[in-house]
Design a protein that fits this description.
With about 170 residues, this protein is of the alpha+beta class. It is built from five helices and eleven strands, in the order ββαββαββααβββαββ. The relative contact order is 0.11.
Length: about 170
């Protein structure tokens, strides 16, 4: 497969190339917006690391992984934690999409499910192992998951960038 050639303008990464459209259709990387595919920061870095994408700035200069990572961390202070979770889940075969409209970082689809046809199984909140969470914050996250008819998934990233997952489900006694 030919690498996707994408452009970074401000905080947006997009491509209108044939490989971008093919990868969107087959593996659901990106979101179709008009005639192009737009990528989240996590999707873009994951594709660059996996040699499926090259990203250029608006002047046509190719950006390397290290500079992209640094730039993405400036754009999003939580990028390191979010990216580790995204990368881990994508490597396991899950489809990970943004969930900002649900009040969460990500929504996660089971392996083999189709975005747009099927519903996500989880609403995901990635956190650092050093980040304290109050009972009120935990309860709020759980309410978001319940109101969207999804299970809550908390991903805790440790200092070595290993990820542990905790699923919360509602049960009826």
């Amino acid at each position: 497969m030919t690498k996707i050639r994408a452009i970074l303008v401000g905080e947006k990464i997009s491509s209108n190339t044939k490989p971008a459209i093919e990868l969107f259709s087959s593996q659901r990387f990106g979101e179709k917006v008009g005639e192009k595919i737009e990528y989240t920061l996590s999707e873009a870095l994951f594709l660059v690391e996996n040699k499926k994408m090259e990203i250029y700035d608006y002047r046509g200069k190719k950006l390397n992984e290290k500079s992209l990572y640094a730039r993405f961390q400036k754009i999003d202070k939580k990028f390191k934690i979010k990216y580790q979770v995204f990368k881990d889940l994508r490597a396991r075969g899950y489809i990970v999409k943004t969930a900002l409209k649900f009040g969460a970082e990500f929504r996660v689809y089971d392996k083999g499910k189709s975005v747009g046809k099927d519903h996500a199984r989880w609403i995901l909140f990635p956190v650092s192992e050093n980040q304290a969470m109050t009972w009120h914050e935990f309860s709020a996250k759980n309410r978001v998951a319940h109101s969207t008819k999804k299970n809550l998934l908390i991903a805790i990233v440790d200092e070595e960038c290993d990820v542990s997952y905790y699923e919360v489900k509602w049960i009826r006694p």
